[in-house]
Amino acid sequence: MSTELLRESFRIQGRNFDKAGEVSSEIKVMLRDLCIDAANTRRTVIIAYEGEMNVVMYAQRGTLTLTLTDEDINLQIEDEGPGIPDINLALQEGYSTATDEMRELGFGFGMGLPNMKKNSDEFRIESNVGRGTRVFARIKLDSRPCS
Amino acid sequence: MTLQEIQALLQCEVLTQGDDLQLDVSQVVASDGMSEILAFAKSKELMITGLTNIQSIRTADIAGVSAVIYCRGKLPDKKVIEFARQKHIPVLATRMGMFDICGVLYNKGLKGVS
User: Fold this and answer.
1) Chain A interface residues facing chain B, Cβ-Cβ under 8 Å?
2) How many domains does chain B fold into?
3) In terms of CA atoms, which chain A residue is nearest residue B61?
4) Looking at the domain assignment, is residue A122 inside a domain?
5) pLDDT, tens digit, 9 for 90 and up, residues A19-35
């Protein structure tokens, strides 16, 4: 049975491209301070950043919750957005519903969700069309955090 | 190859003056798509991009690349340069296009990541 060491939630504001990524940068600093190794920090932060960008691009608002245990890092990204009608299709590399505006920002080339899945040890998406999407990602740790 | 050698080779302007250009680079990741950078960069690469908004530096920081070169003569605004300074990421800019930059660096022995 794993022991929960930390749980923190961050609000993500939809359509605010200037602030997009701030939550992930904050998480990067937090994980470094908690002695999480560079490879697992990198995987976690890539998942967080892609998830954060998805909320900013598609949803009104969202929440990212980070839970750290002595065995793993869990990310839950929940948004109030349009939802995903076909999750398997959305997970295919290259499939995208992005607008030109999103692509001009460097995102929306159909790599976001596949990147999140690739960097996770466990990955799950739940979505209700018209209501929102919830993404879970788990990253197993090789060594115990320092607090 | 050092960043200083690359600067001379590509006739780059250094946008974050004062950064260490003796930094050694052996691998390159080049794209305007930030998810591609995140998917392929393993860390410490040189990043070439034509995207000059704040997300380019945010992506460089998250992906752990060591320096950024903006191509095609595109320049970021001051806010982006200041953000790169805060993150200690050297930023350069050249008039050369991405294809030519990659060709020149490949000929000098630098490799891509896949």
Assistant:
1) 17-18, 20-21, 24-25, 28, 38, 42, 45-46, 49-50, 53, 105-107, 109, 111-112, 114-115, 118
2) 1
3) A25
4) yes
5) 999 999 999 999 999 99
